[in-house]
């Protein structure tokens, strides 16, 4: 059962602007996130079709922003549009924690249906993601059975003034540079900086690979989860507007996370709707609330509304823009005296070690140092390890004391290469 809801301040995202009739008439399914349309857009929409924006989302030029139905916009995301540089986001797309959509200085950003903008990713300038398409290369058309049309921009990736076509993707800490088109059927490899159309469409040049059936299946699962979160958060808000603020409940009522839970601090389960950060759901923190607040910065999202539980030891220091999240049916365990750099991402997910055996969960040991903009996903990080600024550790059991230099990708236990931009 959902626990008793605790009320707080009225739910409002930071919004500047009013509705533009021209935008509303372009597509009747679109909603502009003006003050009357947050955190549920549109405010009187049905639970089945409404888009939910976390109250911490920042929107400028709101009348020049159009959001499709069944979307989820996560904590501390930013959308910046102007009259001459609008932003549109299609149906069943999600804009996750600390994502940046900044059309200022360009002619606008268009994001299509079923696009995943994962934690810490960014789209800048004049850009198109998931709008155009081209024929799939034979290597994809002959091996991928079903394509529903989707795009995945992974953790810390960037699309800067570029075109990313339907049925493609950009891996963690990778980039598509201005003027480049990433065609359908290709995925940019982790950390790579794609600067030409040739690099975007020729795996032999070492920047991209072909899309696989596993990529498609992963996208489908993520899209379903975020559609479910849009519905569940809308229900939670309508039941109690204060429950979507600060330290508070996850919404529950989904097949992957059925129960609504409160975070606990030093064993004390509590809600703090006025907290400057978002700590959501079954998060067990070793620190008291006061100590945690003293040790942490701003725009922090620790969101156990999909995978759970999160067990977090005593925090040494946590800088701004840190994100915790986990895939459904997975958890995160973090040790004591960990230092989190600005924009660090810790994301739970199962890692297959022995075929047929239970997957290894994501664990970060004691006294670990996570650099600014670093990413940990589906990995075990040994005690005392140091991960450099803008480095990623994915699918790896990293031994205790290991030092990962800045701008380095460690993938499946091996150094994959540099973050090139």
Automatic annotation (TrEMBL):
SUPFAM superfamilies: Trimeric LpxA-like enzymes
Coiled coil: none
Signal peptide start-end: 1-24
Keyword annotations of the record: Signal, Transferase
Matching InterPro entries: Gamma-CA, Trimer_LpxA-like_sf
Residue intervals passing through the bilayer: none
Keyword Iron-sulfur attached: no
GO MF, any single term: transferase activity
Name this protein carries in UniProt: Carbonic anhydrase or acetyltransferase, isoleucine patch superfamily
Organism placement in taxonomy: Bacteria, Bacillati, Actinomycetota, Actinomycetes, Geodermatophilales
């Amino acid at each position: 059962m959902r626990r008793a809801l605790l009320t707080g301040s009225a739910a409002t995202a930071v919004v500047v602007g009013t509705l533009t009739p021209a935008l509303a008439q372009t597509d009747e399914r679109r909603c502009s996130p003006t003050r009357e349309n947050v955190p549920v857009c549109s405010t009187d929409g049905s639970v089945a079709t409404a888009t939910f924006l976390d109250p911490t989302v920042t929107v400028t030029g709101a009348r020049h922003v159009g959001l499709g139905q069944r979307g989820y916009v996560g904590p501390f995301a930013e959308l910046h549009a102007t009259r001459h540089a609008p932003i549109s986001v299609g149906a069943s797309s999600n804009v996750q924690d600390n994502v940046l959509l900044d059309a200022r200085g360009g002619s606008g950003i268009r994001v299509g249906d079923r696009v995943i903008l994962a934690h810490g990713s960014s789209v800048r300038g004049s850009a198109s993601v998931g709008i155009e398409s081209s024929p799939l290369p034979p290597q994809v058309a002959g091996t991928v059975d079903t394509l529903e049309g989707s795009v995945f921009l992974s953790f810390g990736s960037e699309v800067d003034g570029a075109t990313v076509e339907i049925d493609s993707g950009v891996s963690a800490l990778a980039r598509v540079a201005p003027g480049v088109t990433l065609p359908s059927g290709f995925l940019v490899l982790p950390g790579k900086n794609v600067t030409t159309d040739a690099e975007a469409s020729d795996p032999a040049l070492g920047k991209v690979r072909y899309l696989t059936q596993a990529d498609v299946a992963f996208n489908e699962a993520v899209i379903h989860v975020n559609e479910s979160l849009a519905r569940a958060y809308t229900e939670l808000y309508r039941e109690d507007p204060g429950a979507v603020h600060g330290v508070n409940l996850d919404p529950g009522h989904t097949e992957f996370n059925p129960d609504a839970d409160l975070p606990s601090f030093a064993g004390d389960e509590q809600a703090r709707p006025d907290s400057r950060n978002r700590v959501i759901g079954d998060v067990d923190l070793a620190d008291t609330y006061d100590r945690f607040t003293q040790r942490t910065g701003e725009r922090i999202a620790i969101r156990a509304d999909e995978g759970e539980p999160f067990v977090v030891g005593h925090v040494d220091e946590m800088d701004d823009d840190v994100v915790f999240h986990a895939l459904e049916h997975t958890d995160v365990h973090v040790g004591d005296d960990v230092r989190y750099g600005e924009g660090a991402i810790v994301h739970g997910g199962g890692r297959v070690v022995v075929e047929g055996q239970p997957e290894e969960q994501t664990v970060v040991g004691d006294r670990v140092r996570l650099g600014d903009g670093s990413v940990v996903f589906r990995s075990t990080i040994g005690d005392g390890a140091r991960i450099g600024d803008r480095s990623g550790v994915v699918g790896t059991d990293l031994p205790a004391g290991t030092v990962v230099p800045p701008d380095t990708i460690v993938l499946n236990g091996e150094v994959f290469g540099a973050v090139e931009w």
